[in-house]
Amino acid sequence: xxxxxxxxxxxxxxxxxxxxxxxxxxxxxxxxxxxxxxxxxxxxxxxxxxxxxxxxxxxxxxxxxxxxxxxxxxxxxxxxxxxxxxxxxxxxxxxxxxxxxxxxxxxxxxxxxxxxxxxxxxxxxxxxxxxxxxxxxxxxxxxxxxxxxxxxxxxxxxxxxxxxxxxxxxxxxxxxxxxxxxxxxxxxxxxxxxxxxxxxxxxxxxxxxxxxxxxxxxxxxxxxxxxxxxxxxxxxxxxxxxxxxxxxxxxxxxxxxxxxxxxxxxxx
Length: 268
Prior knowledge:
Layout: E1 9-14, E2 19-24, H1 32-44, E3 50-54, H2 60-68, E4 73-78, H3 81-93, E5 100-104, E6 118-123, H4 139-145, H5 152-161, E7 163-174, H6 178-187, E8 190-199, E9 209-215, E10 217-223, E11 227-228, H7 241-248, E12 262-263
Parallel strand pairs: 1-12, 3-4, 3-6, 4-5, 6-7, 8-10, 8-11
Antiparallel strand pairs: 1-2, 7-9, 8-9
Helix pairs in contact: 1-2, 5-6
């Protein structure tokens, strides 16, 4: 397996040097949302030994969850074959091939093909409906950010079907569409929810994202105290101390390739 970046790829060192990540130069590139949902999901299920990165893209959510708990097994589920292949290479690049597998699967075709139910599913799904929008020309970006064959309602239903009793689905979504996300979880039977609004820097301005965790049960939505990505009193390049503490537990890669960048990722 060739782990060198191809002409249309970059090799970045992200999350404070913890993860090496091959990404498309012009197609889908990861965002800070991947870090956020991994952070949130690990807090929701720190003891989970089995997890799925649903709609994995290049695999950053799953890679982060694998590093957050020793021995945790990950399944990366991705619809686009070229992204699934990149996620497989990223597993190898981070010496995690023995702890993960990549499955090419379209949720519109049926339930997630897993041998056994899992304890944790985390997803940074496509957010936006396609109707009435000017879509990106690049297919990777288009299918990563805009719903295609499966919307969030299908995401929630397929995930709920593959969770163990007590298992949890965690999703990051635009804050202004949180009601749709809650409705999708409830329709899938994941009524026991914990919802947390995420503000960029100050809780005095509207939140940009919502983090939602759902477990099987009747409707009961608990709103957690809001979180912030950054703190006003700290430098712009640092995250909130809770997020920095999480990143510090992942363990740095042994050596960073020359010329790569230490980045959290692009924003949506």
